[in-house]
Amino acid sequence: MQIISSKNFEKKLSKLSKSVKIKLKEKLRIFMENPSNILLNNHKLHGKYKNYRSINITGDYRIIFEELENNCILLVNINTHSELYVKAKTHIPTLSNAEGYPTQI
Fold it and tell me: What residues does each domain of the chain span?
């Protein structure tokens, strides 16, 4: 599995605390081994985020991602549940508008 990240994801990642980044690394390792691991709560999204999926990083932080061809995952966004879903006014980048990417993780 190859994981790439959008420019938006990288921007949000740079603003996270060290403790959230540590959890992110741990959850991505689990995701690479088994995307269906119950600890991730990997699930389809609806509405504005239709065609995307989400996994839990901490009790409040989530990653939104898109499954691409050739066993490739595009990390689209990372933020708290309320920032992603309640305030959901942010732009959702896709591979076609993720300028300058893919970036391998």
Answer: 2-104
The number of residues making up the chain comes to 105
- Reported as a single tens digit per residue, the pLDDT across 26-64 is 999 999 999 999 999 999 998 888 899 999 999 899 999
Q: Does domain 2-104 have CATH number 3.40.718.10?
A: no
For 5, list phi and psi in degrees, rounded to 5. Answer: -130, 145
What type of residue is 66?
E
Compute the distance between CA of residue 65 and CA of residue 76 in angstroms, rounded to an integer.
Answer: 5
Query: What predicted TM-score, i.e. pTM, was given to this entire model?
Result: 0.78
Distance CA 86, CA 70 (A): 32
